[in-house]
């Protein structure tokens, strides 16, 4: 994505946040916009500890409690998505930006010899999953708005 598109995206998500905060009667603080911009500059999943360390490295004065509270606002506003990949960290939830992202699923690959330490998370989109979703909607008479699909495994050894 080029720099100009990234700038447009950041402007858009800041407008979405501004409108959300106004509708909910929440304070419009500069910290919230700074945290949002840092998240949207990331290219990977993150947890609160990752985000807090990044903010500290960049000399932002923001507490971990502020980040936790802000994450909840972003979730409710539809700006980020929460995942439970099964990792063993202090903050066990992972997050990713979601406003411009299409629906996708995840393959969680654990490190060899571990069932909780993540080596890699691969995002994928398989059109067959859409067919399954359509079948479920038809069979149960529902409309599925969103879904989460996780596969967990290890890389095969070359033996």
Topology:
Layout: H1 3-24, H2 30-41, H3 48-57, H4 64-77, E1 80-83, E2 94-97, E3 105-110, E4 118-124, H5 127-140, E5 150-154
Parallel strand pairs: 3-5
Antiparallel strand pairs: 1-2, 3-4
Protein name: Ferric uptake regulation protein
GO molecular function: DNA-binding transcription factor activity; transcription cis-regulatory region binding; zinc ion binding
InterPro entries: FUR, Fur_C, WH-like_DNA-bd_sf, WH_DNA-bd_sf
Query: Largest beta sheet: what is the strand line-up?
Result: 4-3-5
Number of domains: 2
The whole-number mean of residue pLDDT values reads 86
Can you tell me the CATH architecture of the largest domain? Orthogonal Bundle
Shape: globular
Regarding quaternary structure, what we see is single chain
- Total strand segments: 5
The Rg value, from CA coordinates, equals 18 Å
CATH superfamily of the largest domain: Winged helix-like DNA-binding domain superfamily/Winged helix DNA-binding domain
Low confidence ranges = none
Describe the structure.
InterPro entries: FUR, Fur_C, WH-like_DNA-bd_sf, WH_DNA-bd_sf. Keywords: Cytoplasm, DNA-binding, Iron, Metal-binding, Repressor, Transcription, Transcription regulation, Zinc. This protein has 159 residues and is an alpha+beta fold. It folds into 2 domains: 1-102, Winged helix-like DNA-binding domain superfamily/Winged helix DNA-binding domain (Arc Repressor Mutant, subunit A); 104-158, Dna Ligase, domain 1. 45% of the residues lie in helices and 16% in strands. It is built from 5 helices and 5 strands, in the order H-H-H-H-E-E-E-E-H-E. It has helices spanning 3-24, 30-41, 48-57, 64-77, 127-140; strands at 80-83, 94-97, 105-110, 118-124, 150-154. The protein has a 3-stranded mixed beta sheet with strand order 4-3-5, with no helix packed on it. A two-stranded antiparallel sheet has the order 1-2. Helix 1 (3-24) packs antiparallel against helix 2, helix 2 packs across helix 4 (64-77) and helix 3 (48-57) crosses helix 4. It is globular and about 45 Å long. The N and C termini lie far apart (40 Å).
């Amino acid at each position: 994505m080029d720099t100009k598109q990234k700038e447009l995206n950041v402007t858009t998500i800041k407008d979405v946040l501004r409108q959300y905060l106004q509708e909910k009667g929440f304070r419009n603080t500069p910290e919230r916009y700074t945290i949002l911009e840092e998240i949207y500059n990331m290219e990977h999943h993150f947890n609160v500890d990752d985000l807090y360390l990044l903010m500290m490295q960049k000399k932002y004065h923001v507490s971990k409690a502020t980040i936790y509270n802000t994450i909840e606002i972003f979730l409710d506003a539809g700006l980020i998505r929460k995942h439970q990949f099964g990792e063993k960290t202090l903050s066990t939830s992972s997050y990713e930006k979601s406003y411009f992202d299409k629906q996708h699923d995840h393959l969680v690959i654990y490190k060899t010899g571990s069932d909780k330490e993540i080596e890699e998370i691969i995002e994928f989109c398989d059109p067959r999953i859409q067919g399954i979703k359509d079948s479920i909607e038809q069979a149960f008479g529902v409309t599925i708005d969103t879904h989460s699909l996780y596969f967990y495994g290890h890389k095969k050894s070359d033996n």
